[in-house]
Structure prediction request, 556 residues.
Amino acid sequence: MVVLLLAGIPAVAQPVVSRSEEQIESSSPVTDVVGSVVSVLAPLPPDALRRPPECDYLSYLRWRSVDGPTESTAADRILVAQPGIYEGAGAFESVARNTVSAAAAAGSHIEFWALDRRSNCMEDHTGTQAALAARDLTVASDYYYGGAEVDGRRFGGFVDGDATAWLARQGLEQTLRDQYDVMRIEMPDPAMRKQKMLCGGHSLGGFVTGYFAEWDFDGNPGTLDDAGFNQCAGYFALDTIVKAGTPPLLRGIPDLEVPRAVADPIADLAARVDGALPVLRLPAVINPETTNLLAMAGVAASIDPDGVNDLVDVLPRNTNIDATLRVLLSKDTATAATGSPSVRTLNATNDAVLGALLDDNSQPFGFLQASVGFIGAQPVVDKSFPTLPGMESLPVIGSALGDARKAAPAVFGDPDVVYTWNDYDALDGSEQTARYTDSTSEVTSITQLARSLAEPPLDFTEWYFPTALTFDLAQSGATAISGHRIHRDGADRSPILTLQGSGGIDLPPSGHPNDTRIVVQGYNHLDVLTAAQTQNNGLPEVVSTELARFAADPEL
Prediction:
């Protein structure tokens, strides 16, 4: 029995358990891999602020070969992955399955663990999971917006205010401690961890891993068993670098590698901000309600990919949702400013809506882009919001926007024009499509992306990202951080595999002597996680193939 497994499930009348694991039922086409969700008891320190009881548990998704050992200690290697910003464990679903499968085909039985941040314990996926099971999106919309009951439970609303105050202390130190605790609880032998575990992450997760390698978990440099670098045989970076420092997405906040006399007062100020705004959120696009919107889009496309307007028809009309739809779907500045024509009048299949939200030819922000195909034969125009056509070719802006030309539907409100979607391996070859993309730059199946957004019990897009973590990642000179960064050469001691998408975030070299860097053509920031097992050139997916090869290296 799984106890306190999913966020928001109350602990009333349930016994306290130290560990639980439940297998995930999956519709993935990669059938030689089994997934499960694991929860381990890891209470926060006694001085932690009041929080829900389930937040004293840490959860992760575990994938292993069907034909491999059931015990993690018997696996050949284990990849332990830190998620990126606004990213949950479910984001690794495709790359994890593909990697474990590729390793098994080569004769190696490895595991892939995707960590979930502790803050995700406050999420409530009851509605999306129930809608997927019932194959009815209205189950989710009625639950989140209509006060409907599911299995005796009602949605308590998106958490804010005092209920999130405890997240002000969930910064870098606790995030690293949480990873360390999962690793040592699940594999108590430090020598075995050093031999079997590979540490890494995606996006912001690479920088968290960089700090992990340098951290000393008891603050004593003379005892090395609990040094971060001694937990990992090697490191991997997915469209990121393994480096203690400030991620590109946070470069508006300077990397404060400065004396403590300067860093500590700034850290104190940052702590005050964290206390006032413990969850990093924006008025539109990035907040708990809108990140859950992507999961609902995944549910709609999973249930009925060719259904028309299912998601838009059930969304409430509120300022947050309306502003988000305008930012993500408007074809030009006038549409975004006036709301005319309304993006809600666009007739589109559920697949096309999901494509509009996340495809690199539509989604305006690079860190949310995947290459999942293109619009069908209906007319499109160059998208000129929030940037003008051609700006994606500029070096700095292109890194933030991705390198793909943006397109938007040209016809709104006509019932005879329904926008459809062609998957990554089913482009129509038309002149219109060729203006924006071709098969060499399409790598992710929209069908599998929808499944990854909706199916895993730990989500793809997290609701509650702690503000404290962003400030800490920009303050490497502060006492609370530099006091634990004892082993500055931690990542230099082991091999690193860096896999970067050609259309992803612009990254400098890591500077580590043992870093092997591979640029994967056609991949955007999310594609390194979501790319299909077989590519348009008939070859196996690159990222998972290289990860499996790296994990099998006897020199690690």
About this structure: Residues 260-276 form the longest helix (17 residues). The first strand starts at residue 19 and ends at 23.
